[in-house]
Amino acid sequence: MPVNLPAPDPSKLFPIAGVRIGVVEAGVRKQGRKDVSVFLLDPGSSVGGVFTTNRFCAAPVQICQRNLSQGAEIRALLVNTGNANAGTGADGLERAHATCNALAQRLQIDASQVLPFSTGVIMEPLPSDRIIAALDSAIAAAHPDRWLQAAEGIMTTDSVPKAFGAQVSLGGKTVSMTGVSKGAGMIRPNMATMLGFIATDACVHPDLMQPLALALAQQSFNCVTVDGDTSTNDSLVVVATHQAGHARIDSLASPEGQALFVALLGVARQLAHAIVRDGEGATKFITVQIDGGATVQECSKVAYAIAHSPLVKTAFFASDPNLGRILAAVGYAGIADLDQSRIELFLDDVHVATRGGRNPDYQEADGQRVMRQSEIVVRVDLGRGAASHTVWTCDLSHDYVTINADYRS
Amino acid sequence: MPVNLPAPDPSKLFPIAGVRIGVVEAGVRKQGRKDVSVFLLDPGSSVGGVFTTNRFCAAPVQICQRNLSQGAEIRALLVNTGNANAGTGADGLERAHATCNALAQRLQIDASQVLPFSTGVIMEPLPSDRIIAALDSAIAAAHPDRWLQAAEGIMTTDSVPKAFGAQVSLGGKTVSMTGVSKGAGMIRPNMATMLGFIATDACVHPDLMQPLALALAQQSFNCVTVDGDTSTNDSLVVVATHQAGHARIDSLASPEGQALFVALLGVARQLAHAIVRDGEGATKFITVQIDGGATVQECSKVAYAIAHSPLVKTAFFASDPNLGRILAAVGYAGIADLDQSRIELFLDDVHVATRGGRNPDYQEADGQRVMRQSEIVVRVDLGRGAASHTVWTCDLSHDYVTINADYRS
Fold this sequence. Notes:
2 domains, alpha+beta, globular, homodimer, Ubiquitin-like (UB roll), 12 helices, five-stranded mixed beta sheet, seven-stranded mixed beta sheet
């Protein structure tokens, strides 16, 4: 059961003019599962993308990075679940190219205009023949109003589809944006998460798409973690179809650029948070906020040390205010000159530790009360400066072990 | 159930001339538990120690570091379980000093000649009065032949006591060495492990004790990990009582120095491995060996990325050869210029991946066979140079979550 994550609201999943989506069953790994999706983009759309920093990045990630860096006009995204096509060497690249070529041929575009995405088990050969056999029906099924199906079509161990949309008024025109994401385990995005696709009909200078995608990732997908495992396939793609009819945005710093960014960030954060709320075995949604750091980087180190500590995560699962474990994680986060006597620790509104020791006014019952909640804010003040950083994570439960000890799903 | 870790063999726990041990029940946290131990050292003994790098190091660790750096002749170790006296601020230091003062008074030595050690729950006040009240009976009970009781007296979540001994002939004399350790969770030693005490009657130049302790830690306790949580209380202490009667060792590089080091390292490694074999919830003992690195440091990064990955650890628990997870961990270990096409992966004798992809000759049945074993060697060749590093770890099971989600033990 995901933590406070209702099913997507279809009335908020706005069709985006210029984007059509087709989702089909190709039998990539199992029968009877929607596992291949195509996103078809009208000519003139712009695309930005950010990808995993894992050096074992998957074959499709390598192709995406090349196609985007070469500036090809992207016309289609091709997504499969059931197989990550990672750890597959030269053969994996060949199979990914084969699927792109097959889709390009059917759409009468160049293969470099296709971005491929794969997610699923690592180090197994991609069944490219089965994916290619499903392309005709995927193209035939393509329709603008298929975002919910897209969210379903990219699920692996996700327990619910993840899709959010928003609208904002720019220059008197209504601009829509809708996004989908997937991911529940192997989550410690480092540039982006497993898979996230966001599209808008906004008119944005094409050169802004890459910095836009990066800025969105940095403040959403790059701030969540489930288990600290950075995936081989992390990809976030942002599409603008330029069909909303307002004056083109040429700077993200303009009032319109800011309004668009804030609205897109809202969607991106909901998608990223949804991944944590649906984290494998998650029963709690934890916000880890570090204040008073000398730099954002050291705040991030401390936040991730807390968010990754199996001891902290199991204490949250147990609703046990064994909060010394948080102090221990602060201590080993890697700040060499940290002065423990300046550390303050809060659990929501409860002041747990002061000057590195237990707050004399702290009552265990207060800590217990907060630990029982399904949403908890851990706040640490490092007493070193004015920098802050926040990450979002979940607890570590029996179900995480069950899900990941199961034979490959 | 620990992994291939039998109960200590009493015939191998050699009394060390110059060391007497007393273990009593003080009711530090629970009644009916041996929880306070004193190690009384004859005058003229030498002591070296290495301690946690956690910046939230406990009050006793701070006192140990000061007493050792001031060169005081150490005459007693005072150990309690049930309370870590960490995250306790100025009050924690006062309470630790009070216990040292009380023991020093009874032994007619200076308080700076006492090294205190605490392990247990963090951020609770140390019940120093109860520890002090138990000192007379601990001193009265002190006897050289109490190593097994010492191992029992320092246990917390350990399921078995951990004690090993060895003898070696130096200059025609028999030199004995015996050690005890404790620890099962919050294990990613960074200079040493939770608690380890090793004593020998060897005659060693006192100036060699600190480098000896460091070298032993680097090749034993600093190469094991259970959950990646570096404790606030890690301490390894090595004592030499100089009573074996052989010519004093003035260099660790001499033949006698080497013979002593190798024998001590054997004991230290057994103690360190015992912590992993008894790792919370462990069902498997995993050796992660990284070869072909450009530096030992990068080999260590890769080894710990594998050893800490919850996905890799749950796959070992499930005996599931989902070995792409190992490649993913290699990829995110932080080697920026890693070339995935040079990576080779072996599971014991089974060649799983070659040139970054699945080995065409690899049969899943072979991987499955190795994964079912209780002892497994994972070997990765990075294809970058001649450096190697090995770490030892265990799997991640339901019992780890159960143990750590239990209300404070």
